Every structure is written in structure tokens, then in C-alpha cells.
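Deliverable D2.4 — example input (C-alpha cells):
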């Protein structure tokens, strides 16, 4: 009998009547929850030798807080913890209220952080060694089934010493945990979630960073690459706005930074060229179109379709622009 087939019926019996109704998943891992004291952003990051760890462990809501629920994970700690903190409970009050009603709490490892940066963390006595946590000012790191007892100290030190955005600091903590030994079983998936300090009427915009690596031989390394791509698209969006405002020098700087962060991606260069061409700078756009068409001829057909979308005007002047672009 496999360990998985043994655990499922045992845990189902052990945790009947707990806070959630879904099967318990043994999501052994290391994670960090934190709040940036300057921006107020709140985040959670996690890595594990388990498929799609971010779908179970990491939870966050703008203006509310973040949760990491792991070990023999009870996913309900995520949404129910956020619900309590949204209602005014502190991280400690929210966590304690859920632990009190959970007969399986000794197998849980859970960390909460609220919008004020207050932390509450719990490691049950039956979490598989090495298991433990360390809480600091505005953050908590926690781990179980680790190769050694140095992982959480390395993560805490990396977070405290790192610079940059909250996402970059959370990722630095994951990298340090992996460097100190990480999960004794190895690596498989990782996730990085950062939300804004205040909720808006546009919930899709309240998630500043939301990246997941579901299955990869180096999930933390892949998360680092994806964060760079994410930043590249942020710069490209700022470049688009600069074009709309007529600030072509700022647009050039933003698009160049996007290209630096995501080298070899013709999308970055292409939309810069389109923006130039449709704002009276066709001559300046042509070398960029030539570079993109050489790398990916499919963009020639994309350019033709911009007329129907109204991006290139369906006018004699627009047709002239299109002809000049395609002639190159």
C-alpha cells in the first residue's frame, strides 16, 4: 500500500468534523507571509515538493491580510481566516478562533498576517520534522519536513536584509530557504501572491503580483524568471500610457526596460513600434517593425488586422501607414 493510499482513510477519519469539507492534503513546505511597512502591500510566498502548492497554501486579500496554511493543510483556514480579519479580528484572534475548533490542529502549520502587520503563527506538535517557524517585525516564516533546522533562519535573514519591492523580498526568502536545504523531498511547485494595501472597486487590480509555478524541476528559479516577465509587462504598460500622453522619451525608456527584462520577446518591441507609427512617428517605427517581422513573420498578419480593430485608422492616411510598414 502506498503512503498516499494509507494516509487518505486515516486522515479522513481523524479530521471528520474539521473546519473544511475537502480531503486533507499533506502539503509539506516552507512559506513566508509579510507586509511592506512602506507601501502597505501584503503578500505570501511558498515552495513545496507538491503539485500546485499555491492553490492550497497561499491566500491574500487587499486591505485584509494573508494566510499560509500547510503541513496536513486545511484549506479552509485561508478563506475563513481572511473573513475573520476582514470583520475586524486581529491575526492572532482569527487564527486562535479557527484552531480552537480544529481537532486536527496538531498536524497543522498556519501563519496569518493582518493589514496592520500583526503576525500569528502556529506549528502543531505532530508536524513532520524538521518543523518550526520564526516571526519578526511584519513577517513570519514557517516550514515543515525540511532537510534541516536552518531553513527558517535563512529565510528570515534574507527577508530582513533584502531590498526592493515586497514581491522581490518574498522571493529572496524562498531562494534562501532553498539554499539552506529546503524540503527534504526536493522541489516541485511555488507561488507568489502580493495584494495592495487597500481594496478598490476593481478587485482584479488589487492583486499586484499573482504568479504560480505548478510543476517544475526548479520552481523558485522559474518564479524568479516569471517575476522578471511580470515586471517587463508593467514597464510596457507604462510605455503605452506615456505614448497616450505624448511623452515619447519616457515611452522609449519604459519599452527599453521591458525589452531588457524579457529579451527575445518580440511583443515588447512590436507594440512600441505600433505606438510610434500611430502617433505620427512612422519613420522611427520602421526599424522596429523590421526587427519583429524578421523574428516572427506572423506579426505581419497581425499588423493588417489592426485596421479592423481601429488601432490603425481605416482611412486613406491609415492605409498609407500600413503600406509603409508592410513594405519593410
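Example output (designed residues):
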Amino acid at each position: 500500500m502506498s503512503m498516499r493510499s494509507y494516509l487518505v482513510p486515516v486522515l479522513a477519519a481523524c479530521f471528520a468534523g474539521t473546519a473544511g469539507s475537502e480531503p486533507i492534503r499533506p502539503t509539506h513546505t516552507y512559506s513566508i507571509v509579510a507586509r511592506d511597512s512602506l507601501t502597505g502591500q501584503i503578500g505570501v510566498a511558498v515552495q513545496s515538493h507538491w503539485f500546485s502548492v499555491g492553490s492550497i497554501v497561499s491566500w491574500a486579500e487587499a486591505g485584509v491580510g494573508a494566510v499560509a496554511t500547510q503541513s496536513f493543510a486545511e484549506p479552509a483556514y485561508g478563506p475563513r481566516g481572511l473573513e475573520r480579519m476582514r470583520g475586524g479580528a486581529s491575526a492572532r484572534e482569527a487564527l486562535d478562533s479557527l484552531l480552537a475548533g480544529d481537532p486536527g490542529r496538531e498536524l497543522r502549520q498556519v501563519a496569518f498576517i493582518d493589514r496592520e502587520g500583526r503576525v500569528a503563527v502556529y506549528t502543531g506538535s505532530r508536524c513532520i520534522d524538521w518543523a518550526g517557524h520564526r516571526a519578526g517585525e511584519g513577517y513570519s516564516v514557517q516550514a515543515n519536513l525540511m532537510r534541516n533546522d536552518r531553513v527558517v533562519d535563512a529565510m528570515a535573514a534574507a527577508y530582513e536584509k533584502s531590498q526592493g519591492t515586497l514581491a522581490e523580498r518574498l522571493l529572496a526568502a524562498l531562494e534562501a530557504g532553498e539554499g539552506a536545504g529546503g524540503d527534504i523531498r526536493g522541489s516541485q511547485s511555488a507561488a507568489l501572491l502580493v495584494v495592495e494595501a487597500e481594496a478598490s472597486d476593481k478587485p482584479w487590480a488589487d492583486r499586484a503580483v499573482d504568479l504560480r509555478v505548478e510543476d517544475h524541476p526548479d520552481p523558485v528559479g522559474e518564479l524568479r524568471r516569471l517575476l522578471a516577465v511580470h515586471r517587463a509587462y508593467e514597464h510596457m504598460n507604462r510605455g503605452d500610457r506615456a505614448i497616450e500622453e505624448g511623452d515619447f522619451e519616457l515611452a522609449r525608456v519604459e519599452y527599453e526596460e521591458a525589452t531588457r527584462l524579457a529579451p527575445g520577446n518580440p511583443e515588447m518591441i512590436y507594440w512600441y513600434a505600433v505606438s510610434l507609427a500611430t502617433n505620427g512617428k512612422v519613420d522611427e517605427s520602421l526599424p522596429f517593425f523590421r526587427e519583429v517581422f524578421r523574428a516572427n513573420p506572423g506579426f505581419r498578419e497581425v499588423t493588417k488586422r489592426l485596421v479592423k480593430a481601429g488601432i490603425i485608422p481605416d482611412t486613406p492616411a491609415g492605409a498609407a501607414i500600413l503600406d509603409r510598414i508592410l513594405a519593410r
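Residues 231-327 form a domain with the Serine Threonine Protein Phosphatase 5, Tetratricopeptide repeat fold (CATH 1.25.40.10).
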